[in-house]
Every structure is written in structure tokens, then in C-alpha cells.
């Protein structure tokens, strides 16, 4: 939970810059919206009515859910692209409807814990994999530009540590729903650290604060932003 909490906080520096610039610039807000759904699903998974004795999963994802909502609100406030803002609002509506449908259908249709946590756990695995895989876009950008400017080291370390510790936790509890996605997350985190080591010296850091506040290419992603956030536990979760 402590490691996952730190991973959820990792993007705080990026949002500090966004507030300072009063502009989202090259960052993408879509990963944070998807992480909201990811956290909400894991909160549901860890509840006693679904998976008994998994309160640690619910507590950290509940905290992560609140943090991700704050990130998303900040992004919506300072996003200068009206089309991007409308797309994000539409996505928020869709994920809210999807979560409500999953919750109601599962709890009303299944009346034993095994069927409930198997169904919700499978859905959690799918979205957790999306979240952990989302850095693939930023990893391609790193290789293409030979720059790790938008893939902070602390975020890669957090992703690796988070995936590793939740994989171990899932193994101890014989919970395949935690082992599979977080094992993948640990592997991708290790790949990010390797890329960071390879392209650190070729990165032109510059001074972001001196750049004009103009909108940059803002491509939607599923799970992380151009700053590398998985948003989890990480970001996130239960694997966050």
C-alpha cells in the first residue's frame, strides 16, 4: 500500500507544472481517466462482498481513485483544447456507466464469492494490463526521439516496484488476478528503466518553464500519459 501510494503521487510534479503553466501542453489526460476505472474496479474486487480478506486492495485503490479524480479535474480545468476536453468528458461518462453495469450485473446475478471475484477479477486483469501496457506509446517515443524527457525516472521506478511487490503479494495469497497483471507491470517497468539508462545521455532537457505555453501533440492513451504515468497500483492498485 505504501509503495502504491507513492506511485499514485508520482505524477504530482507534472500537475504542479500544469498548474504553474495554466496549460496542459504536451501531457495527455486520458490515462488518468482510465486509471479511475481501473482503481474503481479494484476497489470493488477487494470488498468483502466480492473477495473476502482483500481489504488492502480496496483501501489503496480507494485512495488512488480519489487522487486520480483530482488529477483529472486539474487537467480538465487547464486543458485549452475544447475537443480534447469533450472527449475526456465523454470517456468519463462511458467508464462510469460501464462500472455501474459491471457492479449491478455481478452482484445481482451471482450470489457466491467465487463467481463474483472470478468475474470481476477477470475484468480487472484486462484493464490492469491496459494500464500497465499504456507506457508502450511513450517507450516508442523515447526510442524514436532518443529522449527520456517525458518518461521520468521516479515514475519508472515506482511502476517497477509496484508491479513487483503486488506480484509477490498475489503469489503469497495464490491470487492469479493479482499475479498476472502486476507481473507484466514489473516487466514493463524494468524495460522503462533500461531505456532510461540507454537514452539519458542523449536527452535534451532544456527548460520547460521557458517554453511558450502552446498546445503540443496530445494523443489519447489508455493507462499512462506522455509523462509516463500508468496511473496504476500504479497507479495502479491492486495492483494498482
UniProtKB/TrEMBL annotation:
- Kindly indicate whether the keyword Transport belongs to this entry: yes
Its main subcellular localisation, reduced to a broad class, is membrane
Which Gene Ontology molecular function entries are recorded, alphabetically? sugar transmembrane transporter activity
List keywords of the entry alphabetically. Answer: Cell membrane, Membrane, Repeat, Sugar transport, Transmembrane, Transmembrane helix, Transport
Q: How does it sit in the membrane?
A: Multi-pass membrane protein
Looking at the record's lineage, which domain of life comes first?
Answer: Eukaryota
Annotated GO CC locations: plasma membrane
Do you know which PANTHER family this protein is assigned to? RAG1-ACTIVATING PROTEIN 1, SUGAR TRANSPORTER SWEET1
What does this protein's UniProt record list under function? Mediates both low-affinity uptake and efflux of sugar across the plasma membrane.
This chain's protein is named: Bidirectional sugar transporter SWEET
